[in-house]
Amino acid sequence: MAMLSKVFDLAIKKDYCEENPVGKVEWPHQPNRRERFITEEEESKIFKSLSGRYERLRPVFLLALYSGLRRGEIFALQWRDVDFEKKNLRLRAETTKTSKGRNVPLIEPAFSILAKLKKSVDGEPHEKVFPFGASRACALFREILDHLGLIDVGLHVLRHTFATRGMRAGIHPLVMKDILGHSTIDMTAYYSHTGREDLLREAKKLEKSV
Q1: Strand, helix or coil at 128?
Q2: Is it the case that residue 192 has pLDDT exceeding 70?
Q3: What is the rounded CA–CA span in Å between residue 78 and residue 123?
Q4: Number of domains into which the chain is organized
Q5: Is the Cβ–Cβ distance between 154 and 92 less than 8 Å?
Q6: Can you count the helices (H) and strands (E) in the chain?
Q7: Does 109 sit behind a cis peptide bond, omega within 30 degrees of 0 on the bond before it?
Q8: Which of 11, 63, 97, 147 could bond 16 through an S-S bridge, CB–CB 3.0 to 4.6 Å?
Q9: DSSP summary character for residue 105
Q10: C-alpha to C-alpha distance for 161 and 35, rounded to whole angstroms
Q11: The 88-91 sheet, strands edge to edge
Q12: Residue 62 located in a structural domain
């Protein structure tokens, strides 16, 4: 239905029709929350596999995992968007899902590997940081994951992992909301309980023998 709706949106822009009939149809409820996040052990295995023909994926992997950027935001990055002095990424409005610009902190190890990449290329301001594109990168990344038996992991799971780790580390939800570019705080609050083993431990305090 989403694809069909897009087709009609394009048709409207090209004056083939005047309205999108998909908008009149009630969409079936489809939960899109993903419980999956990668462990530190899985992170280590993936990183060690990013060598040889896969080595150029290292900055992509670390940026997704340590900045929480969406796939489209990662591959739209230009060198002018990377502020090494302030350790900051400036996402332009036209490159984000919400069409709103935002600043994202550039932390280790993403900072160091991007700095290393910058030294190895000309890195003109308007050049893309990752010129090989999302489709090629995802295909190569998929090969790595299949080899490791991680069939349920992708770039979005890396973003999910960043959000989960951030909330578990105690970063305020409003701060995480701004970093992730969520439109509502409810989207961010979801990560406050994902993957938290301490929930059971805390709940056990209410246990009693009967």
Answers
A1: strand
A2: no
A3: 9
A4: 1
A5: no
A6: 10, 3
A7: yes
A8: 11
A9: E
A10: 10
A11: 82-83, 88-91, 102-105
A12: yes
57-61, 96-100, 114-118, 204-208: least confidently modelled range:
204-208
Does residue 134 form part of some domain? yes
Joined tokens for residue 119: 């030294």
Taking every pair of Cα atoms in the chain, the longest distance, rounded to a whole number of angstroms, is 71
Domain with 144, as residue range(s), is 39-196
Of how many residues is the chain composed?
210
Q: DSSP letters along 78-104, please?
A: BGGGEETTTTEEEE-GGGSTTS--EEE
Specify the amino acid at residue 146: D
CATH number where 78 lies: 1.10.443.10
**Considering the domain boundaries, does residue 109 fall inside one?**
yes
CA gap 179, 102 in Å, rounded: 8
Taking the C-alpha atoms of residue 121 and residue 131, their distance in angstroms, rounded to an integer, is 11
Nearest to 32 by CA among 160, 120, 133: 160
- Tens digits of residue pLDDT in 43-70: 999 999 999 999 999 999 999 999 999 9
| Bridge partners for 82 per DSSP | 89
Q: What share of the chain is helix, strand, coil (3-state, %, to 5)?
A: 55, 5, 40
Arithmetic mean of pLDDT over the chain? 86
Using the predicted structure, report yes or no on whether residue 210 has a pLDDT greater than 60. Answer: no
How far is the C-alpha of 162 from the C-alpha of 173, rounded, in Å? 13
- The backbone torsions φ and ψ at residue 55, rounded to the nearest 5 degrees and listed phi first, read -65, -30
Mean pLDDT, to the nearest integer, of 104-133? Answer: 92
What are 102's strand-pairing partners? 91
